[in-house]
Amino acid sequence: MNSLGEARNAARKHHYKCLCPGCTKNSINSHLVQQHPFLESIAESGYLYQILDNEIDPRSGDTNDLKERQLSIRNALSFPLFCAEHDNNLFKPIETGQLDVSSVDTFLRFELRALAAQRFLEAKRQVLYQNTGFEGWPFDLQRDYSKHIIDRFDCTISYLLRDIDSLSYSDYVHTVVELPFHPLCGSDVVVDEDEMAYSYEGENREVRPLSVLFLTLLPYPESRRLKLLIGYNKKYVGPKQKAFFERVCQQREITQVVDLICRMKNWCCSPSMIAQDNFLTLYEIAHNRMIWEGGC
Predict the structure, then answer these.
(1) What residues form DSSP beta bridges with 185?
(2) What is the tens place of the pLDDT at every residue in 245-292?
(3) Residue 53, CA atoms < 13 Å, CB-side half-sphere
(4) How confident is the model at residue 296 (pLDDT cuts 50, 70, 90)?
(5) How many CB atoms lie within 10 A of CB 158?
(6) Side-chain half-sphere CA neighbours of 229 within 13 A
(7) 3-state per-residue secondary structure call for the chain
(8) 29 burial level (CB within 10 Å; 0-12, 13-18, 19+)
(9) Please, what's the largest Cα pairwise distance for the chain?
């Protein structure tokens, strides 16, 4: 039986493999949102604040607690997702030249990163569980459920890779919403938890693409605007997610932006912004409401 600290170290040092199907190479760290120009534009003295999973003792069954951490630009919003070859092939189109946020291809590549990051966080949590050494209920159930979630992430990733390769975009709905500027950026997926739990019940656990919304928040200080890329695949999203998509498309105020980013797990902001009392108060209120409302 390992201590929680030992389990955390094992999860951090684990060699995570590239998420492209069939690839066995180790993944490299990759930014969800480009270091230049986006992360650099909101950093202060080379640092950002990110909200991270607190990795509390899995024996409690609670993994919702979060903590603030100051990170360098190099480490902020950075996760081991793909090997060097696949990372370059997949994301070079959105990292070189002028970024066209209205392009469906741009949207798909950002959402692939967001989805892969959530898959990584689930895999890291699974490694954490495995290294605690606890057996029996509820730990076996947690590990089994985690494997099911990872299988569904893998299924969704494979569909996205297929669509990027084939340029088949007809099933995707997306839009760009402009918001007042605040020094924030992020990239995430919002999962329909009810649909996830339902698919896991019973003997026949269906492995199919997840019902998710894709969100990417990009700062443009020169225009004093935030651009939110948001969308979904029409074939694999439920009415709950569609309704949330429609509500978000009307967002304009800072309170609504905070409510949105509190539904996102992967975001960061400037140190001075997170130090503002009103921001932290809004964050706490919105985060608590998100928990009690059960996500979307």
Answers:
(1) 268
(2) 887 777 666 667 777 777 788 899 998 887 777 777 777 776 666 555
(3) 22
(4) very low
(5) 14
(6) 27
(7) CCCHHHHHHHHHHCCCECCCCCCCCECEEEECCCHHHHHHHHCECCEEEEEEECCCCHHHCCCCCEEEEEEECCCCCEEEEECHHHHHHHHHHHHCCCCCCCCHHHHHHHHHHHHHHHHHHHHHHHHHHHHHCCCCCCHHHHHHHHHHHHHHHHHHHHHHHHHHHHCCCCCEEEEEEEEECCCEEEEEEEECHHHHHHHHCCCCCCCCCCCEEEEEEEEEHHHCEEEEEEEEEHHHCCHHHHHHHHHHCCCCCHHHHHHHHCCCCCEEECHHHHCCHHHHHHHHHHHHHHHHHCCC
(8) exposed
(9) 55
The model carries a pTM of: 0.86
- Give the separation between CA 230 and CA 140, rounded to whole angstroms: 36
Tell me which residue range forms the domain holding 287.
4-293
- 156/207 Cα distance (integer angstroms): 9
The two tokens of residue 17 are: 């493999």
Give the chain's domain count.
1
Spatial CA neighbour of 127 closest among 295, 8, 285, 261? 8
Residue type, 276: Q
User: Token pair for residue 249?
Assistant: 């498309």
